[in-house]
């Protein structure tokens, strides 16, 4: 076991937290691509009207729970030890993966088993995600922090895309293997973490903010669930935004979140320290993180549907094989993340984080603009270059953004700040599904019914059946394409298809009829989606340019060497003008001396010269 002052300890901390982040985020997407195999394995049709809720909760339950819990678990890490909470996350993840893989039920019971235990797995994932960035920030000196966070954060982002490929490959073999793969990684990671990691940051004992935790969980859950169900049809409408339950969730959840904000300003030890938002750079960084997460999450789902519903069938891939190949054809996006993230972190340590954070989002905006110009049946090399550029932009943004956020908070608030960052990222992904699916469905609803009705009648489908099929909400068609089902076969059913001439039935269920039918309407919806993504990326870039302010040194524990490290981190975050470089360098020297002499009391550690007043 390495001591905390051992020169290799920081690399052990980085390696283990990167594995934890990768494991947590792979599992946010590995199930998405495996859903057809999972539902077939438990003998349930996810597209049946009564089963759509199971589909939505399997899609979004994991992300929703992590979004709700990461702040609470990060704050608990500040209070009781970040490594302690992080280690528990690994153990929970491994145990629950075993339980998921032995689902003993079929039908609705099997679906409920998986959804319930996925929620438990998400608790373990939230423990890992909430504290990994804080552990790294504690372990690394400021001059290497951007690089370390770059590796860690990009592993998290890349994990969501790696999960697509891994899920497709494993589901081809056995749907239970999607959960088996977590077991050895979880066990190894848990043993490694328990033996190797130490709490090096400032621990602040305090009472648990029960009312704050409760109102935050209830309010955010209600809003995100409302968004989730808002994309389902309701009362003859293509979407459910007029559903009283959806409106109750959105409005009621918003009211509860307002009450939560009021509570957090009144309690002595808030779960969500709102005073951190007094720092404009912390606020701007979180806004940029949320906008980037929404844009990136929407891109992922739209590209999967684009590939599985249109491009891959047109190029000879059976619908059942499209989930696997969609993940493979999205590999350039992952490569872009992996290539840019650590490099951006390293360069931002030397030249300042803000230009890289803003520049990364502008690169993403350029790639979205390029995708606007690509036809439905595109040339893959051009598509691959554009999504690679998008991955580069995401990688350029993520590490500097996290470094800026973590460097503007006191050492005893790093767990909470890491949880806030993860909350905005995960909530953005859930929000993106509601926003982009709604925009896509709205675009399809204008043009798809007429195209579908005309196409079906041209193949001999009776006019009344064609009209009825055309009136069905487009979200069902999108879900069918997303899950690798043949949409026309699901739409018409064997009875209608069996009554048609063989050639007509073969044409309708072939690989070209549906993709060519939906290509133009889908592209109309993509234009709306990508324009919104461009707007979000540009606004996020502007938010990233907001100037930082050093962490409030008055809030630090003066007896802890970690406070000196944090002061240096704060100075680093603000040292992007010539006048601030001297302060930052002096703070770094102070922090390095503190790290090299961990047994000395903090009073003997030299303070940075001419430290600017930072008390709010």
The radius of gyration is 25 Å
Q: Main sheet, how many strands, which sense, barrel?
A: none
Helical segment count: 22
Poorly predicted regions: 551-616
Beta-strand content = under 5%
Helix content: over 70%
Oligomer: single chain
- The average pLDDT value, as a whole number, equals 79
Structural class by sheet pairing and helices: mainly alpha
Order of helices and strands: HHHHHHHHHHHHHHHHHHHHHH
Number of strand segments: 0
Report, as a whole number of angstroms, the end-to-end distance. Answer: 41 Å
Shape: globular
Give the helix/strand layout.
Layout: H1 9-41, H2 52-80, H3 82-101, H4 107-139, H5 142-173, H6 177-180, H7 182-196, H8 210-230, H9 244-264, H10 280-314, H11 322-329, H12 331-351, H13 354-372, H14 380-406, H15 414-458, H16 463-471, H17 474-483, H18 487-498, H19 502-508, H20 513-544, H21 561-574, H22 578-596
Helix pairs in contact: 1-2, 1-4, 1-5, 1-7, 2-3, 2-4, 2-8, 2-15, 3-4, 3-7, 4-5, 4-15, 5-11, 5-12, 5-14, 8-9, 8-15, 10-11, 10-14, 10-15, 10-17, 10-20, 12-14, 13-14, 13-20, 15-16, 15-20, 17-18, 21-22
Describe the structure.
The chain is mainly alpha-helical and 616 residues long. It is built from 22 helices and no strands. It has helices spanning 9-41, 52-80, 82-101, 107-139, 142-173, 177-180, 182-196, 210-230, 244-264, 280-314, 322-329, 331-351, 354-372, 380-406, 414-458, 463-471, 474-483, 487-498, 502-508, 513-544, 561-574, 578-596. The longest helix is centred in the C-terminal third of the chain and has 45 residues, at 414-458. The chain is globular and about 75 Å long.
């Amino acid at each position: 076991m390495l001591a905390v002052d051992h020169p290799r300890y920081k690399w052990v901390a980085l390696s283990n937290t990167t594995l934890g982040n990768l494991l947590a985020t792979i599992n946010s997407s590995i199930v998405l691509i495996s859903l057809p195999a999972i539902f077939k394995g438990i003998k349930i049709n996810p597209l049946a009207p009564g089963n759509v809720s199971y589909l939505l909760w399997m899609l979004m339950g994991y992300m929703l729970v992590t979004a709700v819990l990461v702040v609470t678990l990060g704050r608990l890490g500040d209070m009781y030890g970040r490594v302690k909470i992080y280690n528990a996350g690994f153990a929970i993840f491994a145990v629950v993966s075993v339980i998921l893989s032995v689902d003993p039920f079929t039908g609705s019971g099997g679906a409920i088993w998986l959804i319930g235990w996925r929620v438990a797995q998400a608790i373990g994932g939230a423990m890992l995600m909430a504290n990994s960035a804080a552990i790294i920030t504690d372990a690394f000196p400021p001059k290497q922090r951007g690089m370390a966070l770059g590796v860690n954060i990009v592993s998290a982002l890349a994990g969501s895309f790696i999960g697509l490929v891994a899920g497709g490959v494993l589901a081809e073999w056995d749907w239970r293997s999607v959960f088996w793969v977590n077991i050895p990684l979880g066990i190894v990671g848990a043993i490694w973490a328990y033996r190797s990691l130490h709490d090096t940051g400032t621990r602040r004992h305090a009472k648990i903010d029960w009312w704050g935790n409760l109102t935050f969980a209830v309010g955010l859950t209600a809003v995100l669930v409302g968004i989730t169900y808002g994309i389902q049809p309701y009362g003859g409408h293509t979407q459910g935004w007029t559903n009283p339950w959806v409106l109750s969730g959105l409005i009621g959840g918003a009211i509860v979140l307002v009450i939560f904000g009021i509570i957090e300003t009144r309690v002595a030890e808030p779960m969500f320290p709102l005073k951190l938002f007094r720092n404009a750079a912390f606020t701007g960084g979180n806004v940029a993180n949320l906008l980037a997460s929404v844009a990136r999450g929407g891109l992922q789902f739209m590209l999967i549907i684009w590939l599985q519903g249109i491009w891959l069938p047109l190029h000879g891939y059976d619908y059942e094989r499209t989930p696997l190949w969609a993940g493979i054809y999205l590999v350039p996006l992952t490569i872009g993340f992996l290539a840019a993230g650590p490099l951006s972190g390293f360069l931002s340590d030397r030249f300042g984080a803000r230009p890289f954070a803003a520049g990364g989002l502008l690169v993403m905006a350029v790639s979205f603009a390029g995708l606007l110009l690509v036809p439905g049946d595109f040339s893959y090399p051009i598509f691959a270059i554009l999504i690679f550029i998008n991955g580069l932009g995401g990688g350029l943004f993520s590490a500097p953004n996290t470094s800026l956020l973590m460097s503007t908070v006191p050492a005893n608030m790093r767990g909470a700040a890491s949880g806030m960052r993860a909350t905005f990222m995960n909530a953005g992904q859930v929000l993106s599904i509601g926003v982009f699916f709604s925009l896509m469905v709205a675009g399809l609803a204008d043009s798809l019914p007429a195209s579908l009705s005309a196409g079906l009648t041209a193949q001999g489908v009776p006019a009344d059946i064609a009209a009825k099929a055309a009136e069905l909400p487009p979200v069902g068609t999108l879900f069918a394409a997303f899950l690798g089902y043949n949409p026309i076969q699901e739409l018409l059913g064997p009875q209608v298809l069996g009554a048609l001439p063989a050639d007509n039935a073969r044409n309708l269920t072939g690989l070209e009829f549906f993709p060519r039918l939906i290509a133009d309407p889908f592209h109309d919806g993509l234009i709306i989606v990508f324009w919104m993504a461009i707007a979000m990326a540009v606004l996020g870039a502007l938010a990233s340019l907001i100037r930082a302010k050093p962490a409030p040194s008055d809030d630090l524990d003066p007896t802890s060497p970690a406070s000196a490290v944090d002061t240096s981190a704060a100075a680093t975050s603000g040292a992007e003008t010539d006048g601030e470089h001297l302060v930052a360098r002096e703070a770094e020297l102070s922090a390095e001396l503190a790290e090299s002499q961990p047994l000395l009391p903090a009073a003997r550690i030299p303070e940075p010269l001419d430290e600017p007043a930072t008390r709010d």
